[in-house]
């Protein structure tokens, strides 16, 4: 008897069935719309990430190119610096030889010669006696 009362209640009522069907239909439509929005968000996110990756790859390529150019400039300057160091050493040796000759002339001839003392360029290369000349710079020396 209880079965009959329960089944004769809301299950057999066509209005209740229509309300339940309408709710299911609305929920299904809502779920579909939510899924569609979710797919669109994911697609937008994916496009944004692809664009960002492309931009970063371009930027990385530009930085690598800049690093290569600056490394090449550094190597060229370092080579020129090494040449200048070798020239300083060679000229220092020549000057010491000439000063030695002057000392011998001074000792032999008796003439009083003012022979300057030469510092070792390896000890303090930044304190080498040299004339003050301005160092010319150009704007393209400091490009980044």
TrEMBL record:
The BZIP domain is annotated at 21-84
Indicate yes or no for the key word Transcription regulation: yes
Tell me the GO molecular function terms: DNA-binding transcription factor activity; protein heterodimerization activity; transcription cis-regulatory region binding
Q: Does the keyword Nucleus apply?
A: yes
Q: What residue spans carry the Polar residues bias annotation?
A: 1-11
Q: Which SMART domains would you find in this protein's record?
A: BRLZ
What protein am I looking at?
A: BZIP domain-containing protein
Recorded source organism is: Jatropha curcas
């Amino acid at each position: 008897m209880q079965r009959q009362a329960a089944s004769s209640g809301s299950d057999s009522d066509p209005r209740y069935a229509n309300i339940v069907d309408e709710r299911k239909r609305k929920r299904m439509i809502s779920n579909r719309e939510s899924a569609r929005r979710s797919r669109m968000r994911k697609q937008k996110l994916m496009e944004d990430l692809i664009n960002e990756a492309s931009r970063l790859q371009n930027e990385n390529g530009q930085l690598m190119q800049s690093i290569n150019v600056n490394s090449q400039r550094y190597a060229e300057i370092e080579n020129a610096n090494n040449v200048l160091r070798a020239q300083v050493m060679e000229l220092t040796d020549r000057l010491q030889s000439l000063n030695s000759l002057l000392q011998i002339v001074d000792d032999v001839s008796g003439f009083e010669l003012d022979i300057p003392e030469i510092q070792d360029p390896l000890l303090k290369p930044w304190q080498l006696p040299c004339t003050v000349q301005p160092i010319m710079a150009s704007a393209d020396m400091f490009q980044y």
